[in-house]
Amino acid sequence: MTSSGTIPIRTLNDGLVLPQIGLGTYKLVGDEGVASIVAGIHSGYRLLDTAASYDNEGEVGRAIGESGVAREDLIITTKLPGSGHGFDECMNAFETSRAKLGIDVVDLYLIHWPNPSVDRYMDAWQAMMELKEDGLIRSIGVCNFTQEHLTRLIDETGIVPSVNQVELHPYFPQAELRAFHATHNIVTECWSPLGRGTDLLAEPAVLAAATAHGVSPAQAVLRWHTQMGLIAIPKSGMPSRQKENLDVFGFTLSEDEMTALTGLERGRLWGGDPNTHEEL
């Protein structure tokens, strides 16, 4: 095993500081889900990622209270569902999420999908800007937005999203979008960073890097993310796996190893093209 030490951070364009690895909570529900999230917090996670559509904001809220960790030491992310697009709709959806989480201020609030056929994400963004001005949200961003969606937000409001959380892993490294983010000072967060449900962790390039550094394949892939300055949001309900996923800062992949992992690119895995995939 490596020694994780202090988790590196990224500072967002509005000053909020995020650790480079957060805990995904998708499908962590019920009492078992609460216990898993508490275990993650005790393992050292301080960035917790949920969404209205995960239907577990209540469990995340319970875990916050049961963890014994001070609220101000945790960064809570949740996401606006498709049904919340529109100004008033966003205001109502936010209050519902905030009540379920049991917190006064949401640290990071994201539009979950752009849903372009509805074309109301701009109205939701205006509501989020107001909620941030009112001090109810510390930072506002988006998920699954393309360069075109991002450009429209920026051009029409002058407010640059702090984060764009997107599908990103060695099978889908998103080089062009990452470059756009860098140009506009948008931090890239990665959902499904380990390419769940695929053979990514059995790829020869991943196994070779893991073997060379005496780490697991998952650790090698997460190190690939963090060395590129990305924020990875792996999901696991197992305390041992949670700890392993955090323990990726005691080694450095070589340039050749980084290139080999990036060279695994094959494209989007689940058909989640933001121009066509919508969650209403």
TrEMBL record:
Record-linked CDD domains: AKR_AKR5D1_E1
Lineage: superkingdom: Bacteria
Positions annotated as active site in the UniProt record: Y54
Coiled coil: none
Site label Lowers pKa of active site Tyr, positions: K79
Stored InterPro entries: AKR, Aldo/ket_reductase_CS, NAD(P)_OxRdtase_dom_sf, NADP_OxRdtase_dom
GO MF annotation, one: oxidoreductase activity, acting on the CH-OH group of donors, NAD or NADP as acceptor
Residues engaged in binding substrate: H112
A Pfam family it matches: Aldo_ket_red
Family: Belongs to the aldo/keto reductase family.
The protein's name: Diketogulonate reductase-like aldo/keto reductase
Organism: Alpinimonas psychrophila
